[in-house]
Amino acid sequence: MALLSACSSTGGPSSSSDAQSQAPAGAKVVAFSQEGLENDWRSENTQSIQSSLEGAGYKVIYQQADEDQARQVEQVQNMLQQKPDILVVEPAEAEAATPIAKLAEDAGVPLIVADRSLGVAPDPTTQYKVLITQNWEDMGTKLGEAAVSLLTKVNGSPKGNIVELVGVLGSSPQVAMDKGFKAVIEQHPEIKILDAQDGDNKRAPGMQIMEDYLSRFPAGQIDMVWAQNDEMGLGALKAIQDAGRDELIGRIISKDGQVEAIQQVASGTFATVCTNTPYFGPIILPYVQDILAGKDVATTPDKPFTCFESITDAGLAEAKAQYDELKAAGAKFANR
Ligand code: AHR
């Protein structure tokens, strides 16, 4: 097994799927398993976790699985054979990643799961100590409410047709956001979802799927786009602009809080973006420290989020102020 520096020369996460950091002799070892590096969110997220842990003096063994859930389970198995002190996992799909909890249990290594869930819940009597994620169902509810407001604004009442760009079917954000979103829009029988295709949380597939929707549904048949992440939303926007379908400008909602997407809200091109900050390093670090010190930790702490919108004048002004602030700070994503 090749042992490489955990960070690339540009300071980003290693593009290798297999890396190990330098650390002082005797440093505690954190095994960090990332589901993939599919977009900027994942790269920022990986770098944040690696640099926080290394900055606190831990040795980090890192592997990423290119979004292949079976490979991630195998990688976790291999990392556990190296007897780390603690395991941090960001899984891809909940059910397929569930064996990871048993692997940690059998190895006697405490487990922290972040961003997406497994199919089992954390339990302080087991090695699976904590799940750090946001309330995706709540976010789906907020985005459903945003969809209702937008459709009411453009059609005079809560009615209209939605096309959806799905972010990894079976992942916990997808499943829970879908639940929250549908619970809101299903209260309005004249709101319909025309189609929902998986764009894998990436820009190019988001653009291709939107091109397909635009060719199948002529002007007047689509009222808005629900993209389950900003990358796909930005891909959809490009398809809309290239096709000259100007009626859909300002009709995209998405999530992540990528500054490029908040900029679109600030210019009225996106209707709503809810944040999911990728900067998990400072959030995870105290849990690693407390668990290794033998302390009890909260099993499902809340990770807050914010939504920005251009549907109202006040929302637009707030989005502009937020964008200016993030731009001045040189940030790629909102910080919370
Ligand atoms: O699980 C969170 C999602 O994973 C982010 O929204 C997305 O961009 C990333 O791929």
What's the layout of helices and strands?
Elements: E1 18-20, E2 29-34, H1 40-55, E3 59-64, H2 69-81, E4 86-90, H3 94-97, H4 99-107, E5 111-114, E6 128-132, H5 136-155, E7 160-166, H6 172-185, E8 191-198, H7 203-216, E9 224-227, H8 230-242, E10 252-256, H9 259-266, E11 272-275, H10 281-292, E12 307-309, H11 313-329
Parallel strand pairs: 2-3, 2-4, 4-5, 5-6, 7-8, 7-9, 9-10, 10-11
Antiparallel strand pairs: 1-3, 11-12
Helix pairs in contact: 1-10, 2-4, 5-6, 7-8, 9-11
The structure holds alpha-L-arabinofuranose.
The site of alpha-L-arabinofuranose has 11 residues, from helix 1.
Per CATH, the superfamily of the largest domain is: Response regulator
Percent range of helical residues:
40-55%
- CATH top-level class of the largest domain: Alpha Beta
| Computed CA radius of gyration, to the nearest angstrom | 21 Å
Mean pLDDT: 94
Task: Tell me what the structure shows.
This protein has helices spanning 40-55, 69-81, 94-97, 99-107, 136-155, 172-185, 203-216, 230-242, 259-266, 281-292, 313-329; strands at residues 18-20, 29-34, 59-64, 86-90, 111-114, 128-132, 160-166, 191-198, 224-227, 252-256, 272-275, 307-309. With 336 residues, the chain is an alpha/beta fold. It has 2 domains: 2-134 and 278-303, Response regulator (Rossmann fold, 3-Layer(aba) Sandwich), CATH 3.40.50; 137-256, Rossmann fold (3-Layer(aba) Sandwich), CATH 3.40.50. It has a 6-stranded mixed beta sheet, sandwiched between helices. Helix 1 packs across helix 10 and helix 2 runs parallel beside helix 4. Mean pLDDT is 94; it is low at 1-16. The structure holds alpha-L-arabinofuranose. The site of alpha-L-arabinofuranose has 11 residues, from helix 1.
